Amino acid sequence: MKRFARCLLAVFSSLGTSCILLVLLGLLTWLGTLEQTRTGLFEVQRKYFESFFLVHRFGSIPIPLPGANLVMCLLAVNLFVGGLVRIRKSWATFGIIVAHVGIAMLLASALVKYEWSEDGHVTLYEGQRADHFESYFRWEIALIRKEDDGKTREWLVPHERIEDAQRSRVRVSMTDVPFELEIESLARNCRPEWAKDAGAHGPIVVDGVRLVSRAVDARAEANIAGACVSVVDERDGIRRRALLWGAEAKPFTFFAAGKPWALSLRKERYEMPFALQLARFTKEDHPGIDMPKSFQSDVKVASAGVERDVKISMNEPLRDGGLVLYQASWGPSNARPGDRLFSTFAVVRNPADQWPLAACLVIAAGLLFHFVRKLVRYVQLEARAA
Amino acid sequence: MSTFIRQFCALIALVLVSAGLNARPQASEHRTQPWSERTLEAFGEIPIQDGGRIKPLSTYASFALLRLNGKRSAESSTGEVLDPVAWLLDVTFFPEDAALSKSFLVSDSDAIIAIGLSTDGKKKRDRWTYAELLPGMPRLFSLAHDYDAIEAKARTSIQQQVVDLASNVFSFMRLARSFDWSRGGDPSDGHALTVIAPANTTNVDQPWFAPANLVAGIGPNRSLEPADAAVVAEFETLIRLRADAGAFESTLISLRDRLVARAMARGEYEHVELERAYYAFDPIRWSLASFIAAFLVVSIMWLRPRSKLAWKSTLALTSVGALLLVTAIVLRCIIRERPPVSTLYETVLFVTASCVLVAVFIECVQRSRFAIQTAAVLGTVGLFVANGYETLDKQDTMPSLVAVLDTNFWLATHVTAITIGYSAGMLAAALASFYLLGKLIGWKRDEPETRRKLARTVYGVVCFALIFSTVGTILGGVWANDSWGRFWGWDPKENGALLIVISQIVMLHARRGGYLRDDGLCMAAAFGGTIVAFSWWGVNLLGVGLHSYGFTSGIHSALWTYYGIQWGVVGLGGVAWLRERATRKNVPVETPVLEHRRAKKMRAAA
Questions:
Q1: Cβ neighbours of residue B605 under 8 Å, at least 6 residues apart?
Q2: Entry pTM
């Protein structure tokens, strides 16, 4: 057993394993690049780069391959065992070890980004204000109650719970809510239609409308989800059924326990630690031609009662409170001079935001140390030989 | 431009047919003598706002003619060879003469047949005059209108040529109508020559005017500002005097001074003179000449390997070539106020320069002759590629940049680093090919030390390449994170860069592990050249992703030729390796790891 473990360790730490894994990663990168001309980026990313296993079709011949996720996990192990732990420690390998540390930092930042980042967007017309941003493709069901003092209180059903409804009905009970919600069905991409003939097996019809499923779009943000949700009040035995659709203009409203309630399916919202107001959006073209020179949003950022003016433009995002806001889009594209414009900011909360830059510096330092050392020795050798 | 054509094609066809625009639409004055040097100089020095920047009219004329005629000269009806400025003078002041100059390159006469003209007396690839094309124009514009609706990638080569020809004829007509207003024509036709800087404002985003724009502003109750009126009056005088060479010249010089002064008042003439000087001196052409000369001397070196004179001449010529190229790059940086690389064309100049400089450095350290030979070859090939790309792309090589590229910090760091990475990858491939071919033809079989030295150089260059490729690739991600909020998106250009890094890491790890020795490393490095080429050019041809900038169709064949050559060299290297292995017993070659293991065993035994 000990021998087996040692053998395994030797395999994982060997340079041969590194070479094989790197060649595999290169192959996947190459295939994934070419494949993008046939299928979209999203599909390629899912199949080649975020998978553990895949079958690539070379013409009609299927070739099984490990996915980039698997290859990178193994490479990480190889890097730690072979490149950091078992590597000979001397000045000759110092630079290599530093470079490996840098790569480990890069891997760590990728992991943090993958696991703990949130991203979304906020779209504001000039003069509008927001204190939250929305996800591109994660959904939530919001239950809202209007209180006597005119304020509202919200309860949320998260994305994962809603997704469960694809398999079976999901019953949700919430504290301080005198009824339960039952998510009966979920369609990831759908449109509402008038139901002319209510079939026994078709989608559930409510008030003559049903949600008809559509093929799921490869661009995740283009899908509009829909759900059939029932409000089940055990006390009075009333079951109110509603169709919720992601692009609906108004929420479903009802009375229960003497109070008005609203139910809405919407993109997941994240609070921002500040309020953002778009003062002005400017798009400048190069003089005389139709080529954008710059996009810029003048915004007001308000937190803790203090308001400050900030410019957000291409290549110059706003970094504040752990969030980064980028100039992503604008509109309406057919606006005439003087029209009110909107600006869309991509918002990312990524704890590892600046780690790659640090990793890059570490790697550069390691490689420079190693190769300059070698070069100096080589030049000295040549000089001596001459 | 293409939607532009679509919108105006029908209109133009209508105008052509109904107005019966013939080859001599204007008053029948002709140019009787060649343009004087001073006239050409004065006209070329006039600043024009084009493509979002201010440039000399000579640059504008040069690229306009290149687009139409595939070269920077045209032949007049009298057999006179016109340079771009003379051609532009003809087109604007003597359109009736210019209509008879050979100004339109048609690469395949099938396009001419398609528009219903006879190709008698013409070659398959030939140059045509406006007058010759005139009878086919209604059909040309009607076909172009139809073909333009087809997606560019799906067009056949003839369809593309018809669309291009229509676009070229359209540009020619726009230029030819620049001064129609002075002959009673509609001023709304003459938008082409935007040479008049707006007065009374220093806002650099303000578009400039063509003379016709100012004329169009005159109405019953609207008059021009005195300064603008003076410019228009001077243009009118110029057009009236066009047949009188002497008077034309002096009026043109005075007009130039007036236009230059207006541009200067806005601080927009700063680099125009430098750009004039850059194109007049043309350091790239001289650099190419120097590299070609070095290349010729290299061939002497192959015949007389021990000739010291040949070696010194090659070193001197290559260094001069490199110096001229660096001068060109520096001048371009000053003119554009940008770091050295921001377009595909500039990557070629930069890659060539850095390849040659690194090779000259290696030669100075080693004095083993192969690095300098490689430098001469790479310098020549690189600048031929640059010229070929410029001719194929036909666009100003100092264009305005889109918003996301408008950042000198990232252009200076990421783009420069990744381009040095390309250079080193290419240099390693060239040196490795040198090694493999040399081995195949039995070159210096009796000098294993030289061969090992060459292999060690390849290794050194791969190390150098790895630093820059890695740093450049990661910085690219950091830039993407700053402009789009994501570090890595598996975009084809990112993947290309990653492939270069991976290939170089594999080479170094495999060498360290003893899986690749000298021959294997050189084969891998030679193959690595095709990975660099794929990343540099190949991914742009895929037509997907964020980096498919630049017009690169037509580069396919050149790219595949390079792939073919490199793969051929790798294959031949493999043959040579097998041949050697069959004749010689395997001689163990030390690698750091093997050496370390042996030392460890010996220590254990002791």
A1: none
A2: 0.86
